[in-house]
Amino acid sequence: MNKVILMGRLTRDPEVRYTQTNNTLVASFALAVNRRFVRQGEERQADFINIVAWSKLGEFCSKYFKKGQQVGIIGRIQTRTWDDDQGTKHYVTEVVAEEAYFADSKKDSYDTNSFENNFGTTMPSNNPNTGSDFEISSDDDLPF
């Protein structure tokens, strides 16, 4: 079984490119994933893990993920090799994303008056100062 679950912060905005053969979108980025334990007297260390997301998932990541944001990735480890123009062989190990999630709290990600849902539309919050039609005063009876 080849399954990876990671939670970390993006080290840069996702970079988008397209394959030459069938013009498929590929988004690549790196996650800084904190190590679980800290040695006494040392700072917490992180591993920097390369992530690749294809097609629709890659489009989602490129549109909504930004540098510094905390995200969760579920995928699989993949290794590949290639020879460059000088004939030098290169090896890379990366995680191919199969699922991607926001992991920041709403408080960290969004302002208090509105939030952006997964489809990029801005929706009003439940803040009574925003003029919402669904204001609840303290003397209202709630149906639940």
Word description of this protein:
The structure is a single chain. The chain is mainly β. It folds into two domains: 101 residues, OB fold (Dihydrolipoamide Acetyltransferase, E2P); 31 residues, no CATH class. The protein has two helices and eight strands. The strands form two sheets. It has a five-stranded mixed barrel with strand order 1-3-4-6-5. A hairpin with a 5-residue loop joins strand 5 and strand 6. The protein is globular.
Summarize the structure.
This protein is mainly beta.
Q: SSE layout and pairings?
A:
Elements: E1 4-10, E2 15-18, E3 25-34, E4 46-54, H1 55-64, E5 70-83, E6 89-102, H2 106-109, E7 114-116, E8 122-124
Parallel strand pairs: 4-6
Antiparallel strand pairs: 1-3, 1-5, 2-3, 3-4, 5-6, 7-8
Features:
144 residues, mainly beta, OB fold (Dihydrolipoamide Acetyltransferase, E2P), 2 domains, five-stranded mixed β-barrel, 2 helices, 8 strands, globular
| Average pLDDT, all residues | 81
Strand order of the largest sheet: 1-3-4-6-5
Shape: globular
Main sheet?
5 strands, mixed, barrel
Provide the structure class: mainly beta
In the CATH hierarchy, what is the superfamily of the largest domain? Nucleic acid-binding proteins
Contiguous helical run count: 2
Task: Give me the Rg, rounded.
Answer: 21 Å
Question: What is the strand content?
Answer: 35-45%
CATH topology of the largest domain: OB fold (Dihydrolipoamide Acetyltransferase, E2P)
Q: At the first level of CATH, what is the class of the largest domain?
A: Mainly Beta
| Quaternary organisation of the protein chains | single chain
**Helix and strand succession?**
EEEEHEEHEE
Helix fraction, binned, reads under 10%
